[in-house]
Amino acid sequence: MNKNIKDNANKDSENTIDNNENEKNNNDLSSLGPGYVIEQTYTENHIIKKKPLYDRYGVDVNQYIMDGMINKALDNNTDTTIEEWSLYTPPCPNLQPVHYSDDILNPICEDIAIPFNKIKDNTRIPYTLRLSSITSQMKKFKEWKETDGNVPNYKNATIKEMLSETYHPFDYGYYDIKENNDGDYYSKVIKSPMDKVPDPRRRRLFSMILFNSEFELLDVYLSEFYEIVDYFIIYESNCTFSGYKKPLYLTRTLLETNRYEKFRDKIIPVTLPVLEMKKAHPRGPAFPREHLARRQVIEKGLRAVNARHGDLFFHGDLDEMPKARLLSYLKKCGGWEHLQMGFGGAPESMADPNVKSYIRDKSLPIAKSRMGKYLVDYDVFPSLAFNSYFYEYSFNMVKKKQIGNSFHPNIAIFDARRSLGQYPQYTLNGNKYNLKKYANQYHLVKRNEIKEDIIEGNHALIYDDNDTNMGIDPYQGYTYTDNNTPNRKGEGYLGESEVRFVTNPNKSTSDNQISFYKSGWHMSSFLPNMPNFMNKLKSYSHYDEFKNLSYEEQKESIINRIHEHRYIFGNYPPMETININLPETQNEKVPGLYSYKLWKKIESEFNEDIEINTLRKLNYLILHELPRQVWENPICYSYMLDRDYGLSKRLWWEVIPKEEWSTVDFNQLSNKVLDEITPLRKEK
């Protein structure tokens, strides 16, 4: 790492703790209200010390840990280790990745149909799209180019047209039908220039999430997705969004323990200070900090994994979990990409002086939105959302039984053209991109130059020589030029909007925007016990609702809300309740949500105007479906299945002695102990 960049990164960390240096410039920020000034009370501190840790492909998974970052000591005691922390919750004994069958990891794509629903409206039955192998899609593209070649107008196509079983032309930018089986393939990909397109059949999938202290959810998340996701980029800060100093729980766990040793090669922590708020904001200090954190984990995550054209990435909160098998299908199968990326296309060689890049040549026309987003036709939609059921506290409480009303996380395809600032070959309506026409459309003469290309913060820049020779930062197109204020006065890629808020049904979502039907779980406030509730509460961006209550009043409020089945914040109506059982049949464990044959049967029932019993039964199974890591280990996640655990019933690690946590075999315990710690236990 460049010494100046490293020094700047460490200064950012120190400034988060010591705001006194900036006091004369802050115009008494304390008058703005709680949270604007980072907590000023004295605390014992811990200093992060890292070493490089390379995976088998040569990626340093520790590269975005800020060496020397100051963070609050655990329990305010410098001698306390993470496993001695008063709120530490142990992992499930023998925590390891879920192992999926070959039909999930290497699916027959033509047997799969993905159901969709509109974000702004509900239809009687979902739309569906049949998938195809990527090799088959590449062959069809070649045939289409030779026999037709008319680029579709995806911009104005109807939902039915976009989801029909006819071929939807999509240009992967890679044309060698013979699959690349090089054993050293990925080591070469991450060192390849940005303008070189990898084999889409070996594309990678990245998860980007925010973390505070929810280790139990992270255990489930990593276990569910490890076999499918290539890297987990996880944001962590030494301060909550609400302005309280905090330990770097995850970073210390990774550096000091073996809790995640079976997952460590895929975990990339990104440690960053929170945004310093200089002025009052309409939504208070917490939400602007959260939005910036989302933007940064996406941008820095793409850099950390050396993202290349065609890779997939999804972003959400830790408690927003898509169905693992769908992630695998999207990664391994084709035929859906046009829904997000339109016609697609490939980057051109930056070695060609005739290739136009508005990032490299600042005299080229480029239109921008009010917030600085580049207005170029790279995609039909910036990202696609996973429609999920919204569960609160446990799987027993759900916001609505009939529909999934959460539209996160979101998935997108990485586009090297955007990253390099290249104009696409075609517009979304199928016309050749005409730069003069584009300039006239937006009344552009000459673009104002970016004042500064270097972004302050946590920089771990590792570029191949071919990239740096392009004369630009090859990730500039996925970067925003002002991350020092909440006002969005810079220009570039606003990840929090593009891969998060764009699918909010209450915002300016397009009428024909679709999401993956009932394809995930939003596991809101899934916390094991009251101490963890109280610790997490202080970090929420919604914390303003509780800030004037005493500790006991906060605790009483949470307990009442749980008993009344009400959301942890606000005055929303009570949640609906459902009875949860551990799955026994294969159909209960893995409902046929993505079966092409099943959806053809449902469609037939609908067309014959008879009662759609098949869909009704499927929806019942989906509502009661559980993440595999949970139903395979019900004792470990008892509170997710029965909310009395952690409140009036004891959790397993409150019964088993601490010295036996890592070695206990639940099968060897007495019936008396099992009766106490096992949810949904059948009488013997």
In summary, what is this structure?
This protein is an alpha/beta fold and 684 residues long. The chain has 23 helices and 17 strands. It has helices spanning 3-17, 102-105, 134-147, 159-162, 185-189, 215-225, 249-256, 286-304, 324-332, 338-341, 416-420, 435-441, 465-468, 495-498, 530-537, 551-563, 586-589, 596-607, 613-624, 628-632, 638-641, 652-655, 671-677; strands at residues 45-47, 70-72, 113-118, 127-130, 132-133, 205-210, 231-236, 267-271, 312-317, 320-322, 333-334, 384-392, 397-398, 406-413, 514-516, 520-524, 576-577.
Secondary-structure blueprint:
Elements: H1 3-17, E1 45-47, E2 70-72, H2 102-105, E3 113-118, E4 127-130, E5 132-133, H3 134-147, H4 159-162, H5 185-189, E6 205-210, H6 215-225, E7 231-236, H7 249-256, E8 267-271, H8 286-304, E9 312-317, E10 320-322, H9 324-332, E11 333-334, H10 338-341, E12 384-392, E13 397-398, E14 406-413, H11 416-420, H12 435-441, H13 465-468, H14 495-498, E15 514-516, E16 520-524, H15 530-537, H16 551-563, E17 576-577, H17 586-589, H18 596-607, H19 613-624, H20 628-632, H21 638-641, H22 652-655, H23 671-677
Parallel strand pairs: 6-7, 6-9, 7-8, 12-15, 12-16
Antiparallel strand pairs: 1-2, 3-4, 3-15, 5-11, 9-14, 10-16, 12-14, 13-17
Description:
The chain is α/β, with parallel strands linked by helices. The chain has a domain at 40-101 and 185-516. It contains 23 helices and 17 strands. It has helices at 3-17, 102-105, 134-147, 159-162, 185-189, 215-225, 249-256, 286-304, 324-332, 338-341, 416-420, 435-441, 465-468, 495-498, 530-537, 551-563, 586-589, 596-607, 613-624, 628-632, 638-641, 652-655, 671-677; strands at 45-47, 70-72, 113-118, 127-130, 132-133, 205-210, 231-236, 267-271, 312-317, 320-322, 333-334, 384-392, 397-398, 406-413, 514-516, 520-524, 576-577. Strands 3, 4, 6, 7, 8, 9, 10, 12, 14, 15 and 16 form an eleven-stranded mixed sheet that branches. Strand 6 (205-210), helix 6 and strand 7 (231-236) form a beta-alpha-beta unit. The longest helix has 19 residues, at 286-304.
